[in-house]
Amino acid sequence: MSANLNQRATADYRDINGRAVASAMLAKVLIDVSDLQNTGWQPRLVSIRIGEHPSADLYIRNQERVAQEVTIGFERRNFPADISEVEVRAAIMNLNVDPGVTGIILQRPVPEHLPIQQLQSAIAPLKDVEGMHPASIGNIVYRNIELGPCTAMAAVELLKETGVSLQGLEVTVIGHSEIVGKPIAFLLMAEGATVTVCHHMTREVAIHTRRADAVFVAVGRPGLLKGDMLKPGAVVIDIGINQVKPENGLNRVVGDCDYETCREVAGWITPVPGGVGPVTVAVLMRNTVVAARRLQASYSDQFSNHH
To answer: Using N-to-C axis directions, what is the helix angle for 134-141 and 181-190, rounded to 10°?
Structure first.
């Protein structure tokens, strides 16, 4: 496996085009949504945002735009930053029992006084389109990977796009968050990869990355991964999104890898923007279809049990 990666000339890197991957996924989602609509089901997503967050607003606008493209209903529910946990839970419970709502997204970040994990757990697993309910995370451990956390699924999708076989692949994941790093590790292990997870207590990250056929990085630190930390021909999946202000004063969005030095060594690399981001939104839409189908099956089971 590694031999194939190393045969590629170091300078002959290729960008993994996230927009093209997302486009292909959304074409399939559009067909699936149409099939659901033909059986009388209209997938409908409700976005919950608490407080003001310019970065979250950008993500929500993207979600709404893409939902419209694939004819999925999209509704925003915005709550003030000082809302209580009880009030948020009540809003979630109402959405859980509303048959017209097939998916619920709790936008991050939430204000510090609100326990994100408890709120995520309050969302009905059948409507958990983000794959963040403990039951959804648990399913990944049991290799049921149809509906998982969107960013993690998108990152793994982009690795598959390179055509490398995941069986026995040496992978290093930098970052061990509940929403990205850990789920990526579980998703890759389900596919037969050998995974090392690094975090802020890891002594020598470079020792692990230099051995890896593929490196995922998701820590929110621009320029963390440098070219000299990579094995020639390795795949780099950059999940970081950071705003930096260079000398010329214009804000730029960059990832967690030092793109210029990494692309000299890598065989494949995801650009930021245009890599993981578009695919994450496409996975959200695909998850919405999965959730709507499960909900439909659940309702028809209840109906047949009562008759």
So the answer is: 30
Query: Within a domain: residue 192?
Result: yes
pLDDT tens-digit series, residues 86-114: 999 999 999 999 999 999 999 999 999 99
Q: Clarify whether residues 193 and 251 are in a common domain.
A: yes
Domain membership of residue 273 as a residue range: 149-277
- What pTM value is reported for the model? 0.91
Residue 257 within any structural domain of the chain = yes
The set of residues, in sequence order, having a beta carbon less than 8 Å from that of 218 and lying 6+ positions away, is 151, 155, 173, 174, 175, 177, 180, 181, 184, 239, 240, 256
79 and 194, same domain (yes or no): no
Kindly report, residue by residue over 230-259, the tens digit of the pLDDT: 999 999 999 998 888 877 778 888 999 999
167 and 77 belong to one structural domain? no
Domain count, the chain: 2
For 120, the token pair is 């995520």
Tell me whether residue 285 is in a domain.
no
CB atoms within 10 A of CB 302: 10
Q: How is the chain classified by DSSP, letter by letter?
A: -HHHHHHS-TT--EE--HHHHHHHHHHHHHHHHHHHHHTT---EEEEEEES--HHHHHHHHHHHHHHHHTT-EEEEEEE-TT--HHHHHHHHHHHHH-TT--EEEEPSP--TTS-HHHHHHHS-GGGBTTS-SHHHHHHHHTT--SS--HHHHHHHHHHHHTT---TT-EEEEE---TTTHHHHHHHHHHTT-EEEEE-TT-S-HHHHHTT-SEEEE-SS-TT-B-GGGS-TT-EEEE---EEE--TT---EEE-SB-HHHHHHH-SEE--SSSSHHHHHHHHHHHHHHHHHHHHHHHHHHHHHHH-
265 CA to centre of own chain: 26
